[in-house]
Amino acid sequence: MITTYHRPQTLEEAFDLLTQSNTLPLGGGTLLSTPTTAPVAVVDLQSLGLDLLRLNGNELQIGATCTLQSLLEHENCPSALKTALKLEAPLNLRNAATIAGTLVASDGRSPFSAMVSAMDAKINIRSSNSESQILNIGEFILTRPNGLIISISIPLNIKSAFEYVSKTPADKPIVGAALAQWNSGRTRLTLCGYGKSPHLAMDGAEADGIQEAARNAYHEAQDEWASAEYRMDIAAVLAKRALESLQ
Ligand SMILES: Cc1cc2nc3c(=O)[nH]c(=O)nc-3n(C[C@H](O)[C@H](O)[C@H](O)COP(=O)(O)OP(=O)(O)OC[C@H]3O[C@@H](n4cnc5c(N)ncnc54)[C@H](O)[C@@H]3O)c2cc1C
After folding, report:
1. How far does the centroid of ligand 1 lie from the alpha carbon of residue 109, in Å?
2. Can you tell me which atom of ligand 1 is nearest the CA of 104?
């Protein structure tokens, strides 16, 4: 339950507020505003100008408070990322939910997190008492550090693909394969559809062995939605399909 609401006008003011106990950044509020019994103070980020989307060389820099829908509609948003965004949440939620809030709240079923993980996104994050630092997405997903996400950067000079299987075409995947490939041949495959975080199945100098890597990554991926055997088979098929459809 939100008991205190702040709307700072500067980043410094926001950092000061965030040093107070039990105080969290508020993005789109789609998760934070759901009913709970625990009281929480929130720092609304909407007046801080963190909603910019801009090209920076070969990268797309995505401000923390960009909504999922504004990213989806941006002319430089790669089509594989658009596919993942559409699966992340329906339109009404995409219009409110921010990319930082989504990343922070994401679990292993998140297509958006899986796709930016395959793209080896960089997270610009700042804790209240330190300089901002750039974290690799892998490090961010593993450690889930506290701090205010300022922006996320993804490379645009790569090929990417997102393939998935789900109960219905618009449902979050039971298995999703997010693939990115650099001109050098470097190939990263991240799986989603299971567990607490997307799973980096492969980061290799080339794509050889991608199906085996996909299969191995999900050997314990059993839950109420699917058996591990099913996920292993499907992950291998989707990895191959993604490799064939890279663009
Ligand atoms: C009907 C409904 C269905 C939903 N279904 C799902 C679902 O299936 N799966 C799912 O994962 N979620 C679901 N959600 C939750 C939510 O929509 C998503 O997680 C959403 O993408 C969160 O984004 P937000 O910007 O609204 O985050 P907020 O609610 O504003 O914040 C979410 C978290 O991120 C933190 N945060 C926000 N911005 C920053 C920042 N810049 N830096 C650091 N931390 C930050 C907040 O402090 C909070 O801990 C659902 C919500 C609703 C209302």
Report:
1. 14
2. 34
CA proximity to 162, closest of 49, 48, 75, 243: 243
pLDDT recorded at residue 128? 65
Spell out the domain ranges in the chain: 2-43, 53-155, 159-244
Closest to 117 measured CA to CA, from 98, 136, 134, 97 = 136
Pocket of ligand 1 (CB under 6 A): 24-32, 45, 64, 89, 93, 96-98, 100-102, 104-107, 148-149
∠ CA 140-170-158, nearest 5°, is 45
| Pairing outcome for strands 122-126 and 53-56 | unpaired
Taking only the tens place, the pLDDT of each residue in 171-196 is: 999 999 999 999 999 999 999 999 99
The Cα–Cα gap between 81 and 59 comes to 14
Q: What angle do CA 230, 232, 236 make, to 5 degrees?
A: 120
**Domain 159-244 belongs to what architecture?**
2-Layer Sandwich (3.30)
Q: What pLDDT, on the 0 to 100 scale, is given for residue 204?
A: 97
